[in-house]
Design brief:
The chain is built from 3 helices and 4 strands, in the order E-E-H-H-H-E-E. The chain has 91 residues and is mainly α. A hairpin with a 2-residue loop joins strand 1 and strand 2.
C-alpha cells in the first residue's frame, strides 16, 4: 500500500502521536490499514524474526505488542511455522 489508504481518506500517520500508536483501531478496515503499515515499516521481506524481535519492534509503537502481533498473524501479514519458532513477512 504505497499511499497508506484503504477505504479511509485519513493517512495512517493520523493514528500516531509523537511516534506512538494512540490506540489499535476497532474498525476492521482501519486496523488492516494500520497493520499493513506496521508490516511494511517494521519488518523486512525475506528475513526471519524471533518472537522476541517481533515483540521488541512492536513495542516501539504500542505497549500492547501481543495484540498487534496476533492481529498481524491473523491478517497474514506475519506468518510463522506450526512450531512458532520464527516469524516472516507474509503477503
Amino acid at each position: 500500500m504505497s499511499d497508506n489508504r484503504t477505504g479511509d481518506s485519513r493517512p495512517v500517520q493520523a493514528l500516531f502521536s509523537h511516534g506512538r500508536l494512540t490506540a489499535i483501531p476497532r474498525r476492521a478496515a482501519r486496523r488492516e490499514q494500520l497493520l499493513a503499515h506496521l508490516a511494511e515499516t517494521l519488518f523486512e521481506r525475506g528475513r526471519s524474526y524471533t518472537e522476541r524481535e517481533v515483540d521488541e519492534a512492536l513495542l516501539t509503537v504500542h505497549e500492547d505488542f501481543s495484540a498487534l502481533r496476533r492481529h498481524l498473524v491473523v491478517a497474514g501479514l506475519l506468518v510463522r511455522p506450526a512450531d512458532g519458532s520464527s516469524y516472516r513477512r507474509g503477503r
